[in-house]
Structures are given as C-alpha cells and as structure tokens.
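Q: What structure does this chain adopt?
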Amino acid sequence: MSTWHVTEEDLRAYARGELAAPLLWSADTHLAACAECRGLLGNVTDPVALDAGWERLDAELDAPRPGWFEGLLVRAGIADHTARLLAATPVLRRSWLAAVVFLLLATVGAVHTVGSPTLFLSLAPLLPLAGVALSYGPTLDPTYEMAVVAPLHGFRLLMMRTLAVLVAGLGLNGLATLALPGYGLRALAWLLPALALTGTGLALTPRLGPVLAPSLVGGAWVAVLLAAQAAQHTNADSLAPFTAAGQGVAGAVAALATGLLFLLRDRFDLFNGSAE
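A:
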C-alpha cells in the first residue's frame, strides 16, 4: 500500500502561509506524523523567515500574561504600554492593598473603642503619601527601569501613577469613613490634609528624592499633630488640623503644592531618584 506525502510544491506554499484549506488541514495532520515531509519542509523554508518566526514565538511565550487590572485598563481604551506601567505600580498590588485595608479596619476599631476619630484622622492622610512615594523612583519601584525607557514624559508618568494611587487610597479611606457615621462630615477631615501631604511630598521630590521628601513631609505632619496635642488646653475633641481653620490651611497648602509641582514638572525628566 502506497503512502501519501505532501508534494514539494504544496510544502513551499505551506511554508509561505499560502496553502489553502482543506489541503492545509491534511498537510498539518500529515506533517505531525511524517519525519520525511518535515525534513523536506525545513529544506524548502526560507531560513530568515523561519528564524523570525521562532523569535516571534519566543517573544509571545516569554511575554507576561496581563492581569485583570491591566486587561481592564486596555479595554477602557488605555494604550498597552501605559496600562502595563500602571498595572506595575507597586501599591496597586494585593499585598499593599490588603495591608492598607487591615490598618484601616484596626484604626476604625480603635475609634469605636476610644470614642474619638482623632487616630483615624491622623493616620488616613499618611496612607496616600506613602503610596505615592512607593510608586516612583529607583529605590522603591521595582519597575523603575521599565518606566524610564517608556515613551512617556516623566511628569506624565508620575501623575498617572499618582492618580491611580489616589483613587485606590482615597477610595479605601472613604470606605473606612463610612464606618464612622456618628461623626458626620467631621469624619472626612482627613481629605484635605491627605491632598496637602501628597502634593507637598511630590513637589519636594525633585530636590530631595522619592524617599527623603515624603519622609520629611510625614514627619512634619506627625510633629504638627504632637504640637497641636500639646497646645490643646481644653477637653475639645478636635485637634487644630481638623478644625475649620486647620482645614483651610490644609487646602491652601494643597493648592500651593499643586502649583509648585506644575512649575517643576520638567525636572522630573532629569530626575534620577537622588537628591541634588
């Protein structure tokens, strides 16, 4: 009984991707079982095209599969490289978000125990500041090298990641605030300080670096709280930063920091992660 083989002409068409069905299906099935035809196919295939095909295959196999967040960003119309940079933001990973959720739950529990929201209002502004600090710069961002070579203005990348962090961080803070309904709008007194601290930390980053700048800003916030506590001569429940006057100061600082950040936006292209 004679055995059928794919003709050399059909093999050449197969190698060029021009062989039409149903002969294509037959050739696929036959080549899987026939070493002779596979050898002939290798002889008639353009070696340059073959090498290019292997390179494409290697690249496809080595490429990381996009996660659900990256896929969601792509479906929303964000460019692939931008979505990859956003998805690689360290503080958008489950470990960081889980730690923030645990910390907020513990703080809310403490508020209900002591009957005062001061601890929550003091801690909540520091979380977005820490999140933004972890999202930019060679010291803390494991994807910094990828971000540097991305086709994006340095300031634009920073703002994109800052927005993503603020949406996540302020969103979690907002959900925690809902667990304090008895304090009304007073439970939102963390919002303006959070924006002020984050904006100030970003504005100081080109000069002091992504670690020192937020560290100093966070330390200054703690110092302000301690000073307000020491200066409080009555049993009033609200510290000065959470009064109407304190909120006005926080709003002014946030506005000034935003303006300064805009003026310094070009310096982020020269920023190398260290203080000058």
